[in-house]
Each structure stands twice: as structure tokens, then as C-alpha cells.
Amino acid sequence: MLDGKITNAPHIHRARALLDSRALMRNPIQVFEKYRKQLGKTFTFHFAGVKRAIVSTDPDFIQHVLHKNQANYRKSHIQVKRMREFNGYGLHNSHGERWLSMRRHLAKGFLTNRLKKMMPIQLEVMDEAMEGFAQRAGEGPVDIYQEMVKVSLALIGKTLFGRRISDEELQVIADAVSDIQAFILRQIVQPYLIPWYRLSGKTAYYQKIRGEGESLIEEHINIRRRDGGGGSDMLGHMLETLYEDTGRPMEDSQLLIETLQLLIAGNESSSIGMAWTFYLLARHPECIARIRSEIESVVGEGPLDFAALRRLEYTAQVLNEALRLYPPFWMIDRIAQEEDEAAGIHIPAGIMVIPYIYGTHRNPDFWPDAESFDPDRFESTAARERHPYAHIPFGGGPRICIGSDMAMMQSVLVLVSYIRDYDFEPATERPSNICPMMLLRPDGPIPLRFRRVAGAS
Ligand code: HEM
User: What is the number of the ligand 1 atom nearest to the C-alpha of 99?
Assistant: First the structure.
């Protein structure tokens, strides 16, 4: 067929998709939103005019792919392969038995009792962060995006490694991670340039950066081994716990890969989520006031412990609403291993299947007045009545984000720490736009003006 129709879902003509391919590289969400508004909740097109893809915002379709028949859908080969080249073969990019064994092993480190034990480390990090912030806030507008990158790195870094790795070392690792991520993305969207990257020495250059980051982590693991290991941080868990199936601890080489992958997975997603939350709150002072009054009634002058954080229900609603409008993972990609059918759509074997999270979260069938910021949508009764796959910032099914509870706990803690002491507002009229890379970054700084509230500690 001339238009290259792929399945029984509405289809973008192949020539149209080809014409859109440059725009797709620049801002895929803009193109996807245009298609979604034109064609509805599920549609097909040829990625770059060539690769067949089904994009869906239909919660039934997504639930089928991520949960009900998840064994039929694997992460794309190119993502797995490119990631393996730089970040090793870990939880994020493995499948089958290997993935299951690692997932069970690592999941124990994210259980509620472990998160509770991590609380003192997190509180210490936030105390330090707030001390430094007082001066920065007094000097003028603060770029909350960069602020959140720093805070999230300190939180994730110290949750993973405990207190003994320095901020300078964390920065080296974070820079390496961020440069390598960007390089991996370039290879995924422009695979024809891979031979050139190899010949020109670019691949070797990024391998060198990766080596530098890795040796820092390796050194830290060695120190922990020598000093006896253990502790309430994630590295302590990985050193202490034995695999259920083999009864053996994790090998050092695997420890290195998993630590690196957790740092990568946790850091950027959390900082982006927090930055957008502050961005939205700055434009909704009434929500800041409600959070502050919730903190006063739930925590008061008492200690900010794990149980108190869990009782801050409105604060969690605000985070869920921000993750709805600006989901850091704006899409998930899978490849169908065998022919299948989901929500009435035929899925040919080998096709790319994209649960398009950003579009799902703005689908007016599930979200009345979808573009507006309204944390009351997550009030418990309304949330219970909604389709479980209408709000999926952490994905779904067996591969749902392993760090979701930790991310929520840290994000509530960050909001409480700032909002207890500060009011804030936009320092510019210019709205921030989305810049969808692998994750949904803002297109530049998000400058906010902070003012200490009367009677702040
Ligand atoms: C707001 C913050 C976060 C968001 C929005 C987020 C989102 C996600 C999503 C959507 C997935 C599923 C990807 C897929 O199915 O292909 C995922 C997987 C994952 N996330 Fe997160 N994440 C966040 C924070 C964290 C944190 C703090 C950690 C750990 C420290 C973490 C570790 C992981 C890992 C290891 C996986 C892979 C799990 C597997 O394949 O079994 N994430 N995350």
C-alpha cells in the first residue's frame, strides 16, 4: 500500500512521516501531540519514514503491553546494546531470568524498612543543602533546575554510597553520566553515524570518561570491602545481601554496573520531576500555602520522620499532578516479539510499540481540562475511580520503576524543606518549554525568586 498502513489503527501517511522526521528529532512530543489530536488515542507511523511504530495513549493498550502480556515486549535492541556498551549489562537493560534474579535482589534494598533506615542520611543531606541555599536565595533569582540537579545528586549519591563519597567525586560521576547519556541518545537517533563516531575517536573518548567515573565508584566499593561494608545505604545492602537462587553475594563487577545504573536512573529523573514541580507551584501560590498549612498541621514543630512524610497527602497529590503534566520519562519503548492484539489493535511481530506517557497524561478522555494544574485530581476517591494505567509516571507491570517509593519520599522531603522556610514566584514572565531528550528536560534555566517566610527557623 502506498501509504504503508501498518495495522488496523489510524495511520500517518509514510510521506507525511518522512516530511516530519526532522521535526521529530527536534521535538518528538510536538509531532506526537499533532498526530494524537488528529488520529486519536492509538496511531501508527514510520519512524524516520522507515521503522514501523505503534504509539498509544490508551490505558487498556498500555496495560496489555506493560503488564498483561509483558513477556512479549522487550526493550529495543538498540537501547539495550548502546546502553550495554557504556553502562554495562544490569537491571535496566537485561531480560528474562537474568533480569528477574537481579530485580528480586535489588528490590529488597527499596523496601519500606530500608527506606526508613535511609531517612537520617536524607535529612542530613537536606539540612546541609538548606544551609547553602539561604545565601544563594538572598543573592537573587535561583535557577531551580540546576538547584534540583545538585540536591538530587546529593540525595541519590548519598543514598547509594553513604556519607563517605565527596561532592567533588559525585560531580565527576554525574558529569560523566550526563555526557555519556547524551552520546548514547545521539547514537540511538542517528545510528548511521556510529561507524563515524568509532573512526573519529569519539567512542573512545566517551569510553575514557566512563572509565574515570567507574574507577571512582570502584575505589569506593573497595574501601567499603576493606572497612567491613554494611550500612543503611544501598551499597551496604548490595554488599550484605545474598542472591536467593545462588546464596552468593553480588560479584564486584556487577556491583559496579548496578550502582552506576541506579545513579543514572535515579538522578536525572528525580531532578527533572522536582524542577517541574517547583515551576508549577511558583505559578500557583495557593498550592504552596496549602502545602505549608499541611506541614504545620501534620509535622508542626515535631521531627520530620518517615511516618510524618507519608502523612503529607496533599503534598504527594501536588507531586503526582506535576508528574502527570511533566512526566520525566515521557515515553517507554518496546519491541513486540510475536504477533499480538491489544485493545482491538493488531500488533505485528517486530514492531516498535510506544506507550506514550505524556499523551496519556493529557488525554481528555481521562483528564477533564487536561492542560490545567489541579492537584485535587489525586484526592483519594477521584484517584481510585480512574483507570490504573491513566497515570503512569513510573511505568507499570513487572518493570515498573524500582525506585518509585524512594523518589516520592525524597521529593516530599525536598518540597517540605523549601516550603517550610520560603515562598517563591517566577522571576521571569517567560514560560519554560519542554525539551524532550531521553527524559523531559526544561529548555533552559527556571529562575525563581525566593523569599523567607516570617518566623522560618
Ligand atoms: C521522579 C523520579 C523517577 C521517575 C519518573 C522514574 C521513572 C521510571 C520509569 C517510567 C521506569 C520504567 C522504564 C521502562 O519500563 O522502560 C523506570 C525504571 C527504573 N527506575 Fe525509575 N524513575 C524515577 C526515579 C528512580 C530512582 C530514584 C531510582 C533508583 C535510585 C530509579 C531506578 C530505576 C530502575 C533501576 C529502573 C529499571 C527497572 C527494571 O527494568 O526492572 N528510578 N523509572
Answer: 41
Nearest CA to ligand 1 atom 16: 332
The pLDDT of residue 418: 97
Pocket test for ligand 1, best of 75, 89, 260, 394 (most atoms within 8 A of CB): 394
Residue with cell 506535576: 322
Cα(329) to centroid(ligand 1), Å:
9
pTM: 0.93
Burial level of 168, CB count in 10 A (0-12/13-18/19+)?
exposed
- Ligand 1 centroid to residue 263 C-alpha, Å: 11
* pLDDT at 215 (0 to 100): 84
Pocket test for ligand 1, best of 269, 272, 408 (most atoms within 8 A of CB): 269
pLDDT by 10-residue block (mean), the chain, 457 residues: 78 88 86 94 86 94 98 84 71 86 89 89 90 93 93 86 70 75 73 84 85 81 72 78 78 82 85 97 98 94 86 97 97 95 97 96 94 95 91 97 95 96 95 90 96 82
Burial 68-94 (b: 16+ CB within 10 A, else e): ebbebbbbbebbbebbebbbbbbbbbb
- Ligand 1 atom nearest to CA at 273: 1
Index of the ligand 1 atom closest to the CA of residue 398: 41
Residue closest by Cα to atom 21 of ligand 1: 401
Which atom of ligand 1 sits closest to the CA of residue 328? 5
Q: Which of 76, 264, 329, 401 to mutate to test the pocket of ligand 1 (most atoms within 8 A of CB)?
A: 401
Residue 5: predicted pLDDT: 86
All domains of the chain in start order, with CATH: 57-452 (1.10.630.10)
Separation of CA 265 and ligand 1 centre (Å): 6
Per-residue pLDDT at 420: 93
